[in-house]
């Protein structure tokens, strides 16, 4: 059995994606908490291009980019499949994963902006949530159908991080009234045992993101 | 792709994304019907097939639509066993190819657009950024072509070749219209020989839009940039 190591950070949704996939597959791994202000030699060596987490190291070989890591995990450990077997359905799953990746900067903008810009960013984020709800999720229980799959894992940040980020930034984004289906999915997702048992502490997260927000606002208004 | 096979590609001649899918289909020898879309007057069919983005390309396989060029290319590779293999079979190698595909899409495309659409100081800054990122790509490609001279044929052209070709295939034309160098052959010799090898393929040559059309498009994009920057 080759050694599996995950370089991540406790507050990162991207880090958790990989962690969840490994847990769902029952893969034994060693977790290494990185300090992003003092990145380890290992991280810099394993991801010289972006110098970012998460990085998965399997048998000494590094893989970077969480979406790429998720596909790799799915291919190496086929038990408990997280992508549909049918190529068409699989491509649709990948379409939605890519949608989330491509639109992430727009989502994140509300956290980084103030005033008029924040109002605009919040509106844009809500529009994207609507698209995801209507076209991505639709009437399904999970993005993956009856069970969670890679798309659910990729959108896990909506269920587990968005609320905290929104609160820290003083905006309202996902609510049951505006997004009934997506909210219901988020609640279901957080109740999946392996997800529920592997979430960062919500109070710690709120403190962490409140501090980040204060720092961002300070530098934006200075 | 097995059984009854009806493949339709909705694209535009000017879209590098549609070009990618076209190349993938041609490389695999998959017969398809091409539908040229007018982006100022999108067909109802296109809007129906791609309600999320309302963009080209869209591949319709036996009536089922797919959007996003990179997703479509993986689909083509998974459903058609003809050579070339567009992504490697080995999971680790696949991961490396996917990593660089994302790099080209997220880091190079954006910067390239900025180069084309900006002028003066802003353009200079964007070019500098592009050259730096091409340097990173050069380093990364050394892993794929350790002896430094890529030999590309219809049998081994893959998704990375398709990506770089759709972005920088016409780099000499781009440089001519922009009046600046966007690739430094001294700093990125591997990239230049890779692009040259890809551009020599008859399939790539015949899939490229006519020179005058490409030049006209590039001029249109850059001239609009100059107008808005001096307004």
How does this model look, in words?
The complex is a heterodimer of chains A (222) and B (231). By secondary structure, chain A is of the alpha+beta class. Chain A contains 11 helices and 4 strands; from the N terminus they run βαβαββααααααααα. Chain A has helices spanning 13-24, 41-46, 66-76, 87-112, 115-137, 150-154, 156-160, 162-169, 180-191, 193-196, 202-221; strands at 4-8, 30-33, 55-58, 61-64. The radius of gyration of chain A is 18 Å and the shape is globular. The model of chain A has no long low-confidence stretch (mean pLDDT 96). In chain B, 34% of the residues are buried. Chain B has 10 helices and 4 strands; from the N terminus they run βαβαββαααααααα. A 4-stranded mixed beta sheet of chain B has the order 2-1-3-4, with helices on one face. The mean pLDDT of chain B is 93. In chain B, helix 1 links the parallel strand 1 (7-11) and strand 2 (33-36). Chain B is of the alpha+beta class and 231 residues long. Chain B is globular, with a radius of gyration of 18 Å. Chains A and B meet through strand 4, helix 3 and helix 4 of A and strand 4, helix 3 and helix 4 of B.
Quick overview of this protein structure:
The complex is a heterodimer of chains A (222) and B (231). Chain A has helices at 13-24, 41-46, 66-76, 87-112, 115-137, 150-154, 156-160, 162-169, 180-191, 193-196, 202-221, and strands at 4-8, 30-33, 55-58, 61-64. Chain A is an alpha+beta fold and 222 residues long.
Main attributes?
heterodimer, A: 222 residues, alpha+beta, 11 helices, 4 strands, 59% helix, 8% strand, B: 231 residues, 10 helices, globular
């Amino acid at each position: 059995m080759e050694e599996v190591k995950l370089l991540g950070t406790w507050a990162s949704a991207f880090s958790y994606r990989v962690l969840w996939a490994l847990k769902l597959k029952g893969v034994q791994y060693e977790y290494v908490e990185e300090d992003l202000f003092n990145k380890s030699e290992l991280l810099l060596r394993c991801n010289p291009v972006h110098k970012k987490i998460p990085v998965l190291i399997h048998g000494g070989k590094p893989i970077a980019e969480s979406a790429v890591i998720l596909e790799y995990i799915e291919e190496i450990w086929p038990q408990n499949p997280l992508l549909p077997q049918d190529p068409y359905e699989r491509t649709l799953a990948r379409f939605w994963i890519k949608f989330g990746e491509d639109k992430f900067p727009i989502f994140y903008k509300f956290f980084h902006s103030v005033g008029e810009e924040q109002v605009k960013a919040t509106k844009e984020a809500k529009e994207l949530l609507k698209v995801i709800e209507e076209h991505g999720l639709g009437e399904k229980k999970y993005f993956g159908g009856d069970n969670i799959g890679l798309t659910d894992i990729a959108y896990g940040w909506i269920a587990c991080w968005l609320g905290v980020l929104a609160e820290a930034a003083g905006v309202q984004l996902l609510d049951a009234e505006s997004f009934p289906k997506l909210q219901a999915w988020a609640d279901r997702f957080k109740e999946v045992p392996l997800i529920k048992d592997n979430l960062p502490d919500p109070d710690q997260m709120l403190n962490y993101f409140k501090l980040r927000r204060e720092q961002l606002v300070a530098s934006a208004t200075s | 792709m097995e059984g009854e096979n009806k493949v339709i590609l909705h694209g535009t001649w000017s879209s590098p994304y549609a070009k990618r899918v076209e190349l993938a289909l041609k490389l695999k020898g998959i017969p398809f019907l091409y539908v040229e879309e007018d982006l100022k007057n999108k067909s109802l069919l296109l809007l129906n097939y791609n309600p999320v983005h309302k963009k080209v390309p869209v591949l319709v396989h036996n009536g089922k639509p797919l959007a996003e060029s990179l997703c479509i290319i993986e689909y083509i590779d998974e459903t058609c066993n003809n050579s070339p293999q567009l992504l490697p079979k080995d999971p680790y190698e696949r991961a490396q190819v996917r990593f660089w595909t994302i790099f080209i899409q997220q880091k190079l495309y954006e910067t390239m657009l900025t180069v084309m659409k900006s002028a003066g100081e802003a353009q200079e800054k964007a070019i500098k950024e592009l050259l730096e990122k091409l340097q990173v790509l050069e380093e990364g490609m050394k892993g794929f072509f350790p002896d430094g001279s890529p030999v590309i044929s219809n049998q081994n052209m893959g998704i990375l070749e398709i990506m770089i070709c759709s972005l920088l295939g016409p780099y000499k034309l781009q440089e001519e219209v922009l009046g600046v160098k966007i690739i430094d052959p001294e700093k990125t010799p591997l990239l230049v020989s890779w692009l040259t090898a890809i551009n020599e393929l008859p399939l790539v040559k015949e899939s490229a839009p006519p020179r005058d059309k490409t030049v006209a498009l590039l001029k249109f994009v850059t001239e609009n940039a100059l107008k808005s920057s001096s307004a």
